[in-house]
Amino acid sequence: MSSASKHWGSFSLPSLLRHALNLLLFTLSSASLVPILLLQTPPTPFGWAFLAVSLASIFSSLLGLFSHASLLRFLSHALLSASALVGQALGLLSLLLHPEPCLRLLGQANGSRNAKALEKTQAGALAGMLALEAVSIVWAFAEQRCREGEHDVVEKEKRVTARRRSGRVAIELEGSVESADGGSRGEGDGREDEKKRTKGDFVLVITS
User: Residue 69 belongs to what domain range?
Assistant: First the structure.
């Protein structure tokens, strides 16, 4: 196992930071459901839009808690995080730039003090979610790039090892072939010597 895989392992510092980041995002996204539900229950269509953004952020944080070992899991997390990020940005801009119309759309036409406080709380939650979601996306891409680099290194090491093994096998085969050839030549020479001795003995017998 290479140093990169140890660096991004299940109990490494980057992995623990990723878990802490997504747990914080999950907590903040869950808390952002409360102001919308307190403004009006059941929520208005505009309130349901805010709830959908919070739910998307919750699901993206849950996906971010797991390692992106597969490309499909990484793409699902990136797509859901990007959708949540766009929704958070639009919701935050609407609450900051048009607070009074947003209160009316959320079911608080009178604009009471409590309603304004809940609106500011929701805006703060969206701002925090937006920052954490952006960091989560950047972190996910960095981790995926590191894993791709680690995979390339492992593949290169496998190719080098395979070449070394094939070279060793070729050398061993060549040595065995040479030894076999030497043995066959030695055996042939022995047979020729034996034939010569046999012929010499036959000649001696005849002459005697």
Answer: 3-150
